[in-house]
Amino acid sequence: MLTWKTIINFAVKGNLTPDRRVEKTNAEWRQQLTPEQYRITRQKGTERPHSGALCSIYDEGEYNCICCDTSLFDSTIKFNSDSGWPSFTQPIKPNAIKYKKDDSFGMVRVEVMCNTCDGHLGHVFPDGPEPSGLRYCINSESMQLDSKNEETK
Fold first, then answer.
1. Cα–Cα distance between 51 and 7 in angstroms, integer?
2. Number of structural domains found in the chain
3. Does 131 sit behind a cis peptide bond, omega within 30 degrees of 0 on the bond before it?
4. Model confidence pLDDT, tens digit, residues 7-55
5. Which of 7, 59, 105, 147 has its CA 20 to 30 A from that of 13?
6. For 109-143, how does the pLDDT look when each residue is reduced to its tens digit (9 = 90+)?
7. Rounded CA gap, 21 and 28, in Å?
8. Is 33 a member of any domain?
9. C-alpha–C-alpha distance, residues 87 and 74, integer Å
10. In a 3-state reduction of DSSP, which class is residue 150?
């Protein structure tokens, strides 16, 4: 289980190696993604709180990167943080997420990205529920739910 100490270590000393890499030009990303998905994932944007389609969905399944379809989070680790963004306590695998110190906007945070394609996902904070104490605060536009519920497919 990842902890805040582990996350800080990754952000400062380097990340785990991903299972694969996906690299495309900006033009290729623009062609593949909607303008809002591109703004968030490739330009490190954020969506307005409580505006994302995945905020209130708790169907069984995996949340995959909208850019490269890498599995990022499992529905069993999603929780309602009342933050306005989908929140998770752990990534699906330790090497699924890339961590980077983010000191923009006059605060220090840890940015989380897809480790496969470097798509911006959101941030992680040390104020989540036990046992990890982590809260991955993720933009809905950066993910898609691969639902196990056949009715929602």
1. 27
2. 1
3. yes
4. 999 999 999 999 999 999 999 999 999 999 999 999 999 999 999 999 9
5. 105
6. 899 999 999 999 999 999 999 999 999 999 999 99
7. 15
8. yes
9. 11
10. helix
The domain of 118 spans: 4-14+21-148
The answer as to whether 78 is a domain residue is: yes
Q: What is the CATH number of the domain that holds 100?
A: 2.170.150.20
| β-bridge partners, 124 | 110, 136
Q: Which residues pair with 146 in a beta bridge?
A: 62
Give the active site residues.
137
Q: Which two tokens stand for residue 83?
A: 């933050």
CA–CA separation, 139 and 41 (whole Å): 9
Residue 90 contacts residue 77 (beta carbons within 8 Å)? yes
Question: Looking only at Cα atoms, what is the longest distance across the chain?
Answer: 45
Any domain includes 31: yes
